[in-house]
Write a structure and sequence with these properties.
four-stranded antiparallel beta sheet; globular; single chain; five-stranded antiparallel beta sheet; Methylamine Dehydrogenase, Chain H; mainly beta
Length: 372
């Protein structure tokens, strides 16, 4: 999972309004600092804006893998088994002071470092994410097109774009179905290879904000959250063949926004972005499992498939022009630490990951407390 860093772009952001015309000036890609627990239990991290990738186990020094790319703005997603990274590289300038006029999708084999083209789109602007399907055969790119919010689905083997959807966010349920969030807040189930869609839940009331919860999505269920004047509400959507999607509101009484769920769906992590705090909660009961307090703001969090460990990337602003880009640019945030938190023992294994420097043991990891 990742937390989105805000942009102070010179260009106006493309409005995510269905049917609205986009600004002629596009926003640059955001920086994503991705972390993922692979099936072998190791933690993978896209460690800095230069595209350096590291793999870390619960003990021992992390290994640096092949670079994902050298684009100034990095967006990427790991395959679920940890064998591959799919990244987006920016291409070209429209001459009007805006950076992105086309995107190149690249698949990187993390064992060999081999890179191959995986798709290209010429009319996407304001790109903000990419997500790989469970079997690594497809990827969805999220952003905006010339006239609205748009998701493009690519076949990674043939580089072929196969579907275009009006969406601001999407989760893979299996290799042919996506849970799609539209700018209006409507949620749909969409088949990638076919046509048609299924409405999920009622149309949200005016002023209600919705987000998809990453992790834990499967052919049988996924989660989303709503922000209302009373606070966040967490919903689980159960999916069964031949039956309409069934919504259940879960126990969530905290002010922090639910961000990511474990693969088994037993626990959900939330963030207090302003204070650098992560709460891990059991949504079926509302029980607080762990309270992690860091020294910096977290840019990415992930839960291990069994829900027993938390993976984190944290960052800080550069202290001088030599340490990073301009203060107003999201790429100026430099990841300083990659952490693995054992939720049962509240122990933390931590590594430094400062951009363009060697990986070393980090001093002063996050403090983790496991409530009793």
């Amino acid at each position: 999972m990742k937390l989105r860093t805000s942009l102070a772009a010179a260009c106006a952001l493309v409005p995510f309004l269905e049917g609205a015309h986009a600004s002629a000036c596009s926003a640059p890609m955001e920086v994503k600092h991705r972390v993922l627990f692979a099936r072998d239990g190791s933690l993978l991290a896209l460690a800095d804006p230069d595209g350096r990738v590291v793999r870390a186990a619960a003990a021992g020094a992390p290994a640096e893998l092949a670079a994902a790319g050298r684009a100034r703005h990095q967006l990427a997603d790991f395959a679920a088994d940890g064998s591959m990274l799919v990244t987006i590289e920016e291409r070209g300038d429209d001459g009007g002071g805006c950076e992105l006029t086309s995107i190149q999708l690249v698949a990187v084999d993390l064992a060999t470092g081999a890179r191959r083209p995986a798709g290209r789109a010429w009319d996407m602007i304001g790109v903000h994410d990419v997500r790989v399907s469970p079997s690594k055969t497809r990827a969805v790119v999220l952003g905006s097109s010339i006239d609205d919010a748009a998701a493009r689905v690519f076949e990674l083997g043939s580089h072929r774009p196969i579907r275009r959807l009006p969406a601001v966010d999407a989760l893979w349920l299996d290799d042919d179905r996506l849970a799609v969030l539209r700018a209006s807040g409507n949620l749909h189930l969409v088949p990638v290879s076919g046509r048609g869609l299924v409405q999920v839940g009622p149309v949200p009331a005016e002023g209600v904000e919705r987000h998809l919860v990453e992790g834990g999505a499967s052919p049988g269920s996924f989660r989303f959250v709503e922000r209302t004047p009373a606070g966040w509400k967490l919903f689980r959507v159960a999916l069964a063949e031949g039956a309409p999607p069934a919504l259940t509101e879960e126990s969530w009484t905290r002010a922090e926004q639910p961000i990511v769920a474990s693969a088994d769906g037993r626990i959900v992590a939330a963030t207090d972005d302003a204070r650098g705090r992560i709460l891990v909660v059991e949504p079926s009961t509302g029980r607080l499992v762990a309270d992690v307090r860091g020294q910096h703001r977290y840019t990415a969090i992930a839960l291990s498939p069994d829900g027993r460990r938390l993976g984190l990337a944290s960052h800080e602003r550069p202290t001088s022009e030599q340490d990073g880009d301009a203060w107003g640019d999201a790429s100026a945030f430099v990841p300083t630490t990659i952490e693995i938190v054992d939720l049962a023992s509240a122990s933390v294994v931590s590594w430094g990951a400062r951009a363009r420097s060697r990986l070393e043991r980090a001093a002063g990891p996050a403090r983790a407390t496991a409530p009793r």
